[in-house]
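Input chain follows. Return structure tokens only.
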Amino acid sequence: MKKILLSSLLLISGLSQAADQTNQYAYGAMIELSNSESMYNRIELTGDIYTQALSSTLDDVRVFNQKGQPVPFALANVYQQNDENQTFPVTVYSLDNHQENDNNNNQEDEIEGKKLSAIGQYNININNKNIQINLDNANKPNEYHATYLLQIPSEIKLGQPFSRLSIDFEEMSNWQATANLLYSNDLKKWQTAIDNVPIMSLTDNNNNQSLNVNTIDLPSGMNFKSIYWILQLKSDKQLIPSIKTVKFTSRKATPVRDLYPIDLNLISADEQEATYQLSTSLPIKQLTIKLQNERTVLPATIFYKTSDNDKTWHKLDDYIFRSINDTNQSQTININNSILNIKQLKIKAINASLDNPPSVTAYLYRMRIIFNSANNGPFILAWGSPIAKPASLSEKALLSDTISAQDVPEAYLGDKVKLGNREVLSQTDDNSSKSSSLSKWLIWGVLIAGALFLMLLALKLLKEVKKAE
């Protein structure tokens, strides 16, 4: 009786504490490391993994080593690679007239120009148009100053605001000045971007040392995309060298999460509506719709279902799709502020007909796995398990602060491997509840057996006590 009771308890313990194993996953592939000496490797997930994983958040993805043991890993977002900073020269106009000429008229113009610059007024001809610029900050009488108008070339298409400008001066040693930078889009209203920035070129011939400061960094919180700029250089002590060129540099774009495309399968269509389906419910961030016929306009409503159990078509919105010619690009629908779980999609024409159903592509956030690849390789990536629980670490928890995900060597998926049978996919919630019910009945059976065992033991002790009396 004791042995039976102990065996039952061990069976229940084994059922409730089963380890994560490869045969619990339906799909798998070998991992080919590009650097076997690295402590970490990273893998870009493929379309098979997104569509065959049973969890929309990829909770049923694992990495196993050659011993079949789970390996620590992190699910991380993939970001689009930023382009290098855009640097380009700008057109420079000198607003101060320092030219000497024997012509009396030119001398008079120069004197008049100096008077106007002293009160912050400048006249300049741009593209055969006379422009007057008025600045609030006037120049001091005994101050050396130089004022320049900077114009962004019209062919420059800015994606990001300016972050810096670099100034190339005529050669002149041992000088110091301060720089003020103003900006405007109409040459009338000027605002200060930054002021009193030190600019200098100093040389110490005795120690063979030099210091050149010829860049101005703009505040990062401002969206500087103005066409016109005023650069004011001022010094109380010495002349300021003339400017040869000025270059602006744009700020790098904020990293954007990359997207992975999944084509939807057309499952039914008629003249009024077309229905599409994904192999599993996926968290969609973006949709693209492309009409098959040229020179076509299609007003339509888009509906969706979130899962196979969803019996209601939910309206996304009304849209107008156009195809001008055979090179026309797909039209994009962004899921604003969030993601949307979609299993089925329906396009219903409004006062129009569907001669050929459009092609539909869904986009979800692209993901990668970073895992500890230092010991017990080769490794297997496994996915597709209805009973797997979340096991991913955060990227920060897996990697030390000194390691960036971009510096981790990239691994690749190799040959597919057979893990658990496809029968593991049929372990639905109903199966889990049945398994849970079975475990409960086993526990109750053991408890009842234990109670009976104690009753029999008590009766046996009672008989022995009576015999002794």
